[in-house]
Specification:
The chain is mainly α and 206 residues long. It has 12 helices and no strands.
Amino acid sequence: MLKENIKNETELGIKAKTYVNSGQLVPDDLIIEMISKKINELVSSLKGDCNSFGAWIDLGQYYTSIGDYEGAVFAWKTASKIEPNSFLPYHNLGNLYWLSLKDFKKSEEYYFKAISINFDSLNSYSDLADLYLYSTKQPQKAIDLLKKGLNQAVFNNSYLFFLQKIAFIYGESGDKANALKYNEMLFSADPSNESAKQEIERLKSL
């Protein structure tokens, strides 16, 4: 958004450019003013077309960036009603309840909803696994979630994603044997994966 304002030479963009050109950080109040202006533009556009899925999604993001979480929840719930078969509003709500509102139970529910709508919502799998690993300290739940996804995945990028994420979580949990096992599975499926190769060598050297 900052780059957009500078590129379009808006009034706020011109002000911001003076800070950028002098090597200074753009003040927070100027950034907030840009966000508030964008929110007003989206709200105005929604008065003309209240069924604009993209506008509601964007509005939720801008509300989140200024800490208006109630507004973000309303925006994304509205988006989910407009396009009930889209995983995106539910994924965004999962992120919001996890990272901002710290309501892990609701976050879990929304991530599962996103996954149920779209199995290929790999970010939802990844973020929910991280919630289990880092926030609720339940690495086994993360492993179980990812193994379930692995069992449903065909041999493509999704399959490789699950192998890599499982290997990573085993490593983070200190389970060397399983970390090695899944890194070897990953490297076998994708011999071009240098990071997996290096991790195998590292684990074998321990």
